[in-house]
Amino acid sequence: MLNPTFHIYDAAIDTDEAGVDLTAEAKGSPLASKGYTASGNVAVRGFDSIAKLSSGIPFAQHLPVLREIGVEGTATDGTPRLQFHLTSAPTNWITINNNDVSAWFDGSETRAGQPRLLRPSDPPMHGTDVKNVQRALAAAEISVEQDGEYDSATAGAVARFQKQNGLNVSGVVDAATRRRLGVLEGPPRQGGRN
Known about the structure:
By secondary structure, the protein is of the alpha+beta class. It has 2 domains: 96 residues, no CATH class; 86 residues, Muramoyl-pentapeptide Carboxypeptidase, domain 1, CATH 1.10.101.10. The chain contains 5 helices and 10 strands. Strands 1, 2, 3, 4, 5, 6 and 7 form a 7-stranded antiparallel β-sheet that branches.
């Protein structure tokens, strides 16, 4: 049986405003049920300027959440870096700095009678369930616009709340985050994707 290993020893992208350094390793195949693992280390210089580099960046709505997940560090030249350790395995599809962010990619619909998972999306989700979360964040002294739109700023505020309360930091309002915020899980949601 073949067990391929793929290495990225050092890949870098550097511009005046931002830079990214990456090392990674993947073993096995994500299509196999056993033996697959992948991990990588990413260091980003100028993280806050990424959103300004180009409009329409894929996953731009996740940047405020990544800001909360990232670990502040410095490069050998003393410049600041935001660091991320990514892992993937059959049991946890994708984690960043030990935070499970698989829900970002879960396209399944919420079962009837259950509150929906509020998560970064494009276009942003909106509704009374979002307003309830925004009110709870404000009550927890986390500043966020009270507009009923689950935009990147709201996702970042949720991630900040999760980090402060020892929860999985994903920017996704799941059952554990709802409980900690004190947001009731019923009645079923009102709102939509856009």
